[in-house]
Amino acid sequence: MNDEVRIGEILGPDGAERLEEDEAKVRRRFWPTLRMAARHIPFSQDLVAAYFCALDPKVPFRVRATMLGALVYFVTPIDAIPDMLLGIGFSDDVTVLLGAMALMASHITDRHRERAAKALAD
């Protein structure tokens, strides 16, 4: 089964375009959002590794789509609990991210983790 068929089955007929839009949004807003949320997220390195996993073209489409969906939720300022609420603003984001990361953990490789460690050290 090729990627085009999978895209249509998972995301509907406009799936590839939507995935590209999600990826562009995550690339543009991930780092500023992470900087703002870092002190509230004890698993920042795992989150950055998930980011690199979501952008890795070698990772299966369904994994990338799931991770990008969770990351889009993270970078979108309007969600179930507004991110600006001190102490609880990122709790819904954390729940979505942890769920996606748990489901896709086997696809987050040592290479993704190494890139995350390096990115956070810079």
From TrEMBL:
Record key words, sorted: Membrane, Transmembrane, Transmembrane helix
Subcellular location: Endomembrane system
Residues of the signal peptide: none
All copies of domain DUF1232, residue ranges: 64-98
Any one GO CC term of the record: endomembrane system
One Pfam family in the UniProt entry: DUF1232
Presence of keyword 4Fe-4S: no
Membrane association type: Multi-pass membrane protein
Name of protein: DUF1232 domain-containing protein
